TrEMBL record:
GO terms, molecular function: blue light photoreceptor activity; cyclic-guanylate-specific phosphodiesterase activity; FAD binding
SMART domains: BLUF, EAL
Protein name: Diguanylate phosphodiesterase
Species: Mixta tenebrionis
A Pfam family annotated for this UniProt entry: BLUF
Domain BLUF: 2-93
Chain ranges of the EAL domain: 154-403
C-alpha cells in the first residue's frame, strides 16, 4: 500500500547550512534502497518533506529522520494513502526556496510531479506545500525548547505535609491529583479519582453490576470523596469530582443528594466542580441538561472531562456551556509532534475563547507537551509530569524551573 507522510522540522543552529547537499545525497541513497521517493523544501531554517512509498518503508525512513540530531521540533503534518506517487523520481528532490522566486516556486514543484494525473491545488499535499512556501503557518507553529530546558522540582514543604489519611472502612477510596497553573505556582483544583478499596480496577468491579447499580454507586460514593476532602482540609481549593452523565439522570434527586453531602461535610457548592465524561452516551439529553442547570443554579461548576474522547463533546457545547473543558489525554499525548493534534487543540482553544470557557490539558507526561500547550495558550495542566494521583492524600507538586 502506497503511503504518504509529510513532516516539518527546524535545522539546529549549530549545523552549517552548507552540509545540506551532503544530507540530501545520503538521503537519496537510503531512500532508493527502501523505494521511497519525495520532495524536500528548505527555507533557510525549516525543512518540509514529503515521503512516498510502501507504508513500512516510509515508517522506517521517518524513524531514522526523527532520530537525526541535526534537526529538532519535528511535527508530523500528514500521514495518508494514495493510488500513485506524486513525486516519483528516485530518492529525494530538493528545493532550496532561497534560490527561487516565491511566485514561481509552486509551478516548479508542479513540474516535478510524476503522477499521470495533473497535480491540482486541491490536492492535500500541494496545499501543505503551498502553505509552507507562502509561510502562512507560522502563527500556528511553535518552537519548543528541548525537554531538559526545564527542571521539575518537588515542593519539599508540601511533600512533608502530604501524608495519607485513613479513609475508614469504606468500599471505595479516592486518590487526589492537583490541577495546576505552573507559572503562578498555584493549585487550581484537586480532582478526586475513585478507586476500588481492594485495589482492583473499577471496570472489574462495575462489570458485575447492572447499569442502575453503577449509576447509584457512581453518585453515592461521592459522599466518601467529600468526607476525605474535609479530612484533608482543602479550604481555599476547589474539589473536582467525576460523574457519569447518566448518573445525574437515572438516580432520583441526584443534585439534591450532592448538595446535602456538600453541606454535611462543611463544604460549599461554589467549591465543587462536577466533571461529566464525554465518552458515555447520553440517551436522555433534555433531562441531563435540566440536571446541569440545577447544578449551576446551586453554585456548582461544571466541566466536560475527556473532551475529544467520545462523540458528544461538540453536541454538549451546543446544549450547555460548561465552566471548563478538559482535553482528553489521548489528544495531549505527543501533541508537540503531531500536526493533526495541534490543529484540533488550536480549534478547541479558539472555540472555548469565544465562549469564555476555561481549558485544562489532562494527562500531561512530557515537558515538550506542556511547553507546546502553554505556547498555544493553555495555562492549566494535570498529569504525572507535575504530580501523580495519591491515595487518600494531596500529592506534592513538581514545579517547573528554567535551567540556566
Amino acid at each position: 500500500m502506497l503511503s504518504t507522510l509529510i513532516y516539518r522540522s527546524h535545522l539546529c543552529d549549530d549545523v552549517p547550512v552548507k552540509t545540506l547537499e551532503e544530507m540530501v545525497s545520503k538521503a537519496n541513497r537510503l531512500n532508493e534502497l527502501y523505494d521511497v521517493t519525495g520532495i524536500l523544501l528548505f527555507n533557510g531554517t525549516h525543512f518540509f518533506q514529503v515521503l512516498e512509498g510502501p507504508e513500512d518503508a516510509v515508517h522506517t525512513i521517518y524513524q531514522r529522520i526523527s532520530a537525526d540530531p541535526r534537526h529538532h521540533n519535528l511535527v508530523e503534518l500528514m500521514r495518508d494513502y494514495a493510488p500513485a506517487r506524486r513525486f516519483g523520481n528516485t530518492g529525494m528532490e530538493l528545493f532550496d526556496l532561497r534560490e527561487y522566486d516565491p511566485n514561481t516556486v509552486l509551478q516548479a514543484v508542479f513540474d516535478k510531479g510524476t503522477t499521470k494525473y495533473q497535480l491540482t491545488y486541491d490536492d492535500r499535499v500541494l496545499l501543505f506545500i503551498r502553505t509552507f512556501v507562502e509561510a502562512r503557518e507560522k502563527e500556528n507553529y511553535f518552537e519548543v525548547p528541548p525537554a531538559d530546558a526545564w527542571d521539575f522540582i518537588v515542593d519539599e514543604e508540601a511533600s512533608a505535609q502530604s501524608e495519607a489519611i485513613s479513609p475508614g472502612a469504606a468500599r471505595w477510596h479516592y486518590a487526589f491529583q492537583p490541577i495546576i497553573d505552573p507559572f503562578s505556582r498555584r493549585i487550581v483544583s484537586l480532582e478526586a479519582l475513585m478507586h476500588n478499596a481492594d485495589g482492583a480496577p473499577l471496570r472489574d468491579a462495575f462489570s458485575q453490576l447492572s447499569s442502575s447499580e453503577v449509576y447509584d454507586i457512581d453518585l453515592k460514593s461521592k459522599k466518601q470523596a467529600f468526607a476525605l476532602a474535609k479530612k484533608l482540609d482543602i479550604e481555599g481549593l476547589t474539589l473536582s469530582i467525576n460523574l457519569l452523565p447518566m448518573s445525574l439522570v437515572m438516580v432520583p434527586d441526584a443534585v439534591d443528594f450532592l448538595l446535602a453531602e456538600i453541606e454535611e461535610n462543611g463544604l460549599v457548592p461554589e467549591q465543587i466542580v462536577v466533571e461529566v465524561t464525554e465518552n458515555e452516551v447520553i440517551s436522555r439529553l433534555d433531562e441531563f441538561a435540566t440536571a446541569i442547570r440545577q447544578l449551576k443554579a446551586a453554585g456548582i461548576s461544571v466541566a466536560i472531562d475527556n473532551f475529544g474522547a467520545g462523540s458528544a463533546g461538540l453536541l454538549l457545547l451546543t446544549r450547555f456551556q460548561p465552566d471548563r473543558i478538559k482535553i482528553d489525554r489521548n489528544i495531549i499525548s505527543e501533541v508537540h509532534k503531531s500536526g493533526p493534534k495541534q490543529a484540533i487543540v488550536q480549534a478547541v482553544i479558539k472555540c472555548c475563547s469565544s465562549l469564555e470557557i476555561a481549558i485544562t490539558a489532562e494527562g500531561v507526561e512530557k515537558p515538550e507537551e506542556w511547553m507546546w500547550l502553554e505556547a498555544a495558550g493553555i495555562y492549566h495542566f494535570q498529569g504525572p509530569l507535575f504530580a501523580a494521583p495519591k491515595l487518600n492524600a494531596i500529592p506534592a507538586v513538581a514545579w517547573p524551573e528554567k535551567n540556566g
